[in-house]
Structure formats: C-alpha cells, structure tokens
Amino acid sequence: RACPYARGMSRWSPASALLILALIFAVDTVTTPSPSPQQGTAELSPQQFLEQLLFVVAPIEQWCGPSRLGTATGFFFVNEERLYFVTNRHVVRDEEHRLYPDKLRLRLHTNVQDHTQNDNYDISLYRNGISVWREKPGLDLAAIEIPRNDVERFVIKALPPSLFAPTDLVIGPGDDVIIIGYPRGFSDTLHNYPVIRVGAVASAYPTPFQGKPLFLVDARLHPGTSGSPVLAKPSTTWRTLQGTSVTGLSTFFLGVNSGEFFFGGESLGLNGIWYAAEVQAITISSFRTASFPQQ
C-alpha cells in the first residue's frame, strides 16, 4: 500500500477538525494543590501541581508504514472512567493535504522518579481497515480510546471533566492562558518535557467565534502544537459572577489548539481553540462517530 505523504503540518482553516482522549486505572487525573468547592481533590504542593501538567501531553510522530510524516501534540483525557488520547482531526487524517498516517507514535515516561526513562507507545489508527478515532463533523478534534492495560507501565496524567471552567467563572479578552505542546517537535528530549507557551484570550469567551464552538488566543505558536491543551494560567485568585474568589493554586481546561488563522494569505498570530466541552461531547459512551476506510 502506498502512503500518501504531506510535507509537514498544514495551515488551519475554520473547517478543520480535532482529537482527544482520557484514562484512569494506572493513570491519575490532574488534581489541585488543595480542595476546592468544584473539585474536592487531594492536597498537593504548588510545585507538585505544576509538575503534573508536564505528564498530560505527549509528543506525536505521524507514521505511514516506514515513513515518518510529521509531528504534532496530543493529551490524555478521562471521561466516564474511560481513557482517551486527544489531538486534532487533521493530525489523524487530512484530506486537503493528502496526509494519511496509519499510526501515531507517542513518547511516554516509564519511571515516576527518573524522567529520563521513556519509551515509545504506538496507536494504530485503523482496525480491520476502519478508522478507530471519534470525531464530530466540522470540528478539528479527534479522540482515540486507549485500553487501560496497554499503558499500565507508563506514567501519565489525564485531564478530567472536573477541570472544566465553572459556569460562574469570568474569563475575558486579555486573560492569560498556557498552551502545552511541541512546536515543530521541539522539546526537552532528555526528560521528555513539553514546551509551555503563554498567550491571551483574543475573542469573546465563551461566545462561539463566527458561530463555531471555538475562541481565539493571541500566541506565538508553531506547527507541531496542533492538539495542544489550552489551560487558564495557574492562579490562586479567580473572577466569578459573584466577585473575586481566592482558592488554592488551580487551573482550568479551556480547550484544544487547532492552528493559526490566515486572512488574505497573511498570518494574524491568532489561533483557533476548540472549547473543552467538545472534547467531553465526543468521549461520552453514547456518541456515534463517522468512520473512514484506510487509504
């Protein structure tokens, strides 16, 4: 079988789609440093809390047979006690640019103390010639369920729905966010740590931008950060509809980076972020997805 090939990741357009996944069992979910009214999680020091975020994401290499096609970012998400790996839909299948990988290769930690110990974990994108990821038409998201016993030997953290922003949280243009990923595949390869970029909300939140379930972030991102989780910058103080709320150090999962907007052929430095609720929507057990034959 010939492997259609594309040279690197493509520019994003509003018609693109994205991917997500989750896990428990040997995998822990991200917890906050002290119990909060929304989450009631176990106590952690601020340093331990921040270190968790390094284990949420994984670098992706796209492969088709013996050919390495490109790089991207993905993260773990848990819903209804099922583990998923989430990334952009254009990472697993990109018809516009004829990018058809048959597997994703992740690099994951194997030792909770020594982070220089890592190993590869391959995710097959097709089973019996049919795609295995979940997607929602018109969204650049994809989620692949991961068998829990497949990842028992790895050190992984997963984002849980309890990390979604509460409905009374006030988030607006100019608010800081962090984007965790691997720009052009770049990272601390010795420790397998991602790069964390800082950006700002650049559109009304939580309003659907141009009618799509996404918002904009002003940040200097690169190809390879497709599929990166976007979180509110960790803080101890949050604005709510009732006023200012002071908590232990915490963050909130806001969405998934899909790529940069271009207008009139010019880069705007603005990135489309699909709302986190869309990740939950495609990972519920009752969700039905389209499937695709292997190329």
Report on this structure.
This protein is mainly beta. Helix content is about 5%, strand content about 40%. It has three helices and 19 strands. The protein has helices spanning about 45-50, 90, 275-280; strands spanning about 20, 30, 55-65, 65-80, 80-90, 105-110, 120-125, 125, 130, 140-145, 155-160, 175-180, 195-200, 215-220, 230, 235-240, 245-250, 255-265, 265-275. The strands form five sheets. Strands 1, 3, 4, 5, 6, 7 and 10 form a seven-stranded antiparallel β-sheet that branches. The longest helix is centred in the first third of the chain and has 7 residues, at about 45-50. Residues about 5-25 and about 30-40 have low confidence and may be disordered.
Give the topology.
Layout: E1 18-19, E2 28-29, H1 46-52, E3 57-64, E4 67-79, E5 82-88, H2 89-92, E6 103-109, E7 118-124, E8 126-127, E9 130-131, E10 142-145, E11 157-158, E12 176-181, E13 195-201, E14 214-218, E15 229-232, E16 235-240, E17 243-250, E18 253-263, E19 266-275, H3 276-281
Parallel strand pairs: 2-11
Antiparallel strand pairs: 1-5, 3-4, 3-6, 4-5, 5-10, 6-7, 8-9, 12-13, 12-15, 13-14, 14-19, 15-18, 16-17, 18-19
H and E string: EEHEEEHEEEEEEEEEEEEEEH
Counted beta strands: 19
Structure class = mainly beta
Q: What proportion of the residues is helical, as a percent range?
A: under 10%
Question: Alpha-carbon distance between the termini?
Answer: 8 Å
Radius of gyration, taken over Cα atoms and rounded to an integer in Å: 18 Å
- What portion of residues belong to β-strands? 35-45%
Q: What is the 3D form?
A: globular
